[in-house]
Amino acid sequence: MVLLLIIAGLGVVTLLVILFAPHIRKYAAGGVCTSSARLDGKTVLITGANTGIGKETAQVLAVRGARVIMACRDVEKGEEAAASIRAANPKAQVEVRKLDLADTCSIRAFAQDFLREVDRLHILINNAGVMMCPYSKTTDGFEMHIGVNHLGHFLLTYLLIGLLKNSAPARIIVVSSLAHYFGWIRFHDLHSQGSYNGGLAYCQSKVANLLFTRELARRLQGTNVTVNAVHPGTVNSDLTRHSTLMMLFMSVFSVFIKTPSEGAQTSIYCAAAEELHSVSGKYFSDCAPASVAPQGRNDETAKRLWDVSCELLGIEWH
Ligand SMILES: NC(=O)c1ccc[n+]([C@@H]2O[C@H](COP(=O)([O-])OP(=O)(O)OC[C@H]3O[C@@H](n4cnc5c(N)ncnc54)[C@H](OP(=O)(O)O)[C@@H]3O)[C@@H](O)[C@H]2O)c1
C-alpha cells in the first residue's frame, strides 16, 4: 500500500514537472543580461574558456565585437571551442592561448608572452575552476582547489594588473559561487593536509575568490579598474565531472538547472553593462547585486589571505 502511494506520488510529481516544464525552465534560467553594450575595440581574456560558462561568455563577448583571448590548459580543446564559435559567428575574433593555472611556471610564461604580444587588456574574467576533485596538488604543491581557483588566478591578475591599469577603464570579473556560504579559510591547513573533503576545499576556494575581490577592489580605488565577483547559478556543465552523484543529480534535475549560456549571463553583465562602469568590490548573481556570507566580507581575513597568498607565490603585491 505504502509502495503504491509512493509510486503514485512520484507519478503525479513527474506529470506536474512535464506539464509545467516551460515555466520551470523560464524560472530556472534566472537573470538575463539586458545590456546590449558593444565591446568593439576591447580586449577580453577569459580563463577556462574551452567549455561551460567560460566558452559561452567568450562567444557572447566576441559577438559584441571584442577580441577574446581564450586561456585554456588544453589548447586542442580550446581550438575546438574557438572553431565552433567562429563557425557560428564568422566575424568573431577569438584566439586560444595555453594557460595551466595549476602550474605557476605556465602562468608566468603565459603572462610574459601576453604582455609582449597584446598591448591592451580591458576585461579579465577569472572563470576557470575545479570542483570536488580527488586530493591532488598543483605543480607548486598547493591543494588543487585553492591552487587553481584562487592562487592561480591571484598570480595571473598580479602579472596583468599593470596592463589592466594602462588600459583603463578596465574590469576584472571573478567567478565565485554561492557555495562560498559553506566555506571558510582554514589558515592553519589551507592545503587540507590534515583532513580533506573535496566539497569543503571547493567552498574554501570560493570564499577566497570573494575575499580577493574585496581586497583587490580596495587596492584599486582611483585606478579606473574595477573588480566584481559573480555567482553564475547552478549550471549544467563539466564542473561536476569528479562526482558521479552530482552528475546524476544534474541530469535528473536538468529542467531546474541553468544551461551554460544562462549561467554566463552574470559574467556578461559584469563585463559589459554600462551602469557598472564604476561599481567595484561587489558580488552579483542573476545580473543583480547579491549578499555575501559574513566569512566572505571580513576585511581582516581578506588582508590576511592576501599576505598568505603573496607569501605562497613568492611575490610582493603592495
Ligand atoms: N557549474 C556550476 O553550477 C557553477 C556554480 C557556481 C560557480 N561555478 C564556477 O563557474 C566557473 C566555470 O565553471 P563551469 O561550470 O563552466 O565548469 P567547467 O565546464 O568544468 O569549466 C571549467 C573550466 O576551467 C578549466 N580549468 C580547470 N582547471 C584548470 C587549470 N588548471 N588551468 C586552466 N584551466 C583550468 C577547465 O578546463 P578543462 O576543460 O581542460 O578541464 C574548463 O575550461 C568555475 O569557477 C566554477 O567554480 C560554476
Automatic annotation (TrEMBL):
InterPro entries: SDR_fam
Pathway: Cofactor metabolism; retinol metabolism
One GO MF term: all-trans-retinol dehydrogenase (NADP+) activity
Enzyme class, spelled out: oxidoreductase
Sorted UniProt keywords: Lipid metabolism, NADP, Oxidoreductase
Catalytic activity: all-trans-retinol + NADP(+) = all-trans-retinal + NADPH + H(+)
Entry's EC annotation: 1.1.1.300
Top-level division of the source organism's lineage: Eukaryota
Pfam families in the record: adh_short
Entry similarity comment: Belongs to the short-chain dehydrogenases/reductases (SDR) family.
Name under which the protein is recorded: NADP-retinol dehydrogenase
Taxonomy of the source species: Eukaryota, Metazoa, Chordata, Craniata, Vertebrata
